[in-house]
UniProtKB/TrEMBL annotation:
Region spans: Disordered: 74-93
Native source organism of the sequence: Paenibacillus terricola
Subunit structure and binding partners: Homotetramer; dimer of dimers.
Molecular function terms from GO: 4-hydroxy-tetrahydrodipicolinate synthase activity
Name this protein carries in UniProt: 4-hydroxy-tetrahydrodipicolinate synthase
Pathway: Amino-acid biosynthesis; L-lysine biosynthesis via DAP pathway; (S)-tetrahydrodipicolinate from L-aspartate: step 3/4
Annotated catalysed reactions: L-aspartate 4-semialdehyde + pyruvate = (2S,4S)-4-hydroxy-2,3,4,5-tetrahydrodipicolinate + H2O + H(+)
């Protein structure tokens, strides 16, 4: 199980590969996991936003988890995970829904499948009160699998106040936050007192800025590619070498901008297919493939960019 001290470094929210028929593509998934675990990342997130959680059935999550744990229990030649003596790659499973009981049940099942923590998004759509949101996290944390809260108002339609988030982070069993609020204000407010549980950046274009404001790492879809460059941005920042970290990050920005010009994960799936890691860039509806214009721009970056495709 993950502890709050391990909520640092880079976590990659893995895509869920589909065949053109729409079925799971396990061969591509295994290739992706095998490739990712050769990097010094802190963990992989299964069934996150980038994993298209709204259209992946729970039985499919279980199939993916079995395949992933078989690969990640042997992580040859890697240092132990930061903050622990664990050598296998930690796995965080997305279990958040807008139904508290269903999310708690999923957290329990994820724990029995070997998840090291669960990612729980702010309950979307129903527009619950701040009290309701706290109670949601309390119920799920009671299951006993470490919980990483996930605040992403642009997708959920609700916004958690800073004071509410402090209460959520105070819950026993909540080990940190993934901040996809779209600005650095939330992380600055939370970390200002110096005693917050860790906050990971979940907004790729703000990764460096959030590290400067006290974030302990990032959960970044774009780190599927150029993984070592994202790790370098992180490492330099943790060494206090912020301007060198910014230089590396600035070279990644054109890539990040293109990967989020249209809805994630369509652009990253297209790119991974070009790199031969995915057999197909198929998405499940209502997600649709990227436009020809974005294909052309990403293709140009692949051909010319100093940072992509190496
Ligand atoms: O799947 C995730 O985790 C992430 N989701 C965010 C989103 O798609 O809005 C972006 C971030 O890179 C990671």
């Amino acid at each position: 199980m993950l502890s709050e001290h391990q909520i640092q470094g880079i976590f990659v929210p893995i895509v869920t590969p589909f065949l053109p028929s729409g079925e799971l593509d396990l061969a591509s998934f295994e290739r992706m996991v095998t490739q990712l675990q050769t990097h010094d990342i802190q963990g992989i997130v299964l069934n996150g936003t980038t994993g298209e959680s709204p259209t992946v059935a729970w039985e499919e999550v279980s199939t993916l988890m079995q395949s992933m744990t078989a690969i990640t229990k042997n992580r040859p030649g890697q240092e132990p995970v930061r903050g622990s003596d664990q050598n296998s790659m930690p796995i965080i499973v997305g279990v958040g829904t807008n139904d508290t009981r269903a999310s708690a049940r999923r957290a329990e099942m994820a724990g029995s499948m070997g998840a090291d923590a669960v990612l729980v998004v702010t309950p979307y759509y129903s527009r619950p009160s701040q009290e309701g949101i706290v109670a949601h996290y309390e119920q799920i944390a009671k299951v006993g699998v470490p919980v990483l809260a996930y605040e992403i108002p642009s997708r959920t339609g609700v916004r958690v106040d800073v004071s509410t988030m402090r209460r959520i982070l105070d819950i026993d069993g909540v080990i940190g936050l993934k901040d996809s609020t779209g600005s650095t204000d939330f992380v600055s407010a939370l970390t200002a007192s110096g005693n917050s549980k860790p906050v990971l950046c979940g907004e790729d274009r703000l990764f460096h800025a959030m590290l400067c404001q006290g974030a302990s790492g990032g959960m970044l879809a774009s780190a599927h590619v150029e993984t070592d460059s994202f790790l370098e941005v992180y490492r330099l920042a943790t060494e206090g070498r912020y301007s060198e970290s910014l230089n590396t990050f600035n070279r990644l920005l054109p890539l990040i901008e293109l990967l989020f010009r249209e809805s994630n994960p369509a652009p990253i799936k297209w790119l991974l297919k070009q790199q031969g890691l995915l057999a197909s860039d198929t998405l499940r509806l209502p997600m649709t493939p990227i436009t020809a214009g974005l294909q052309a721009d990403l293709g140009q970056l692949l051909a010319e960019g100093p940072y992509v495709g190496k």
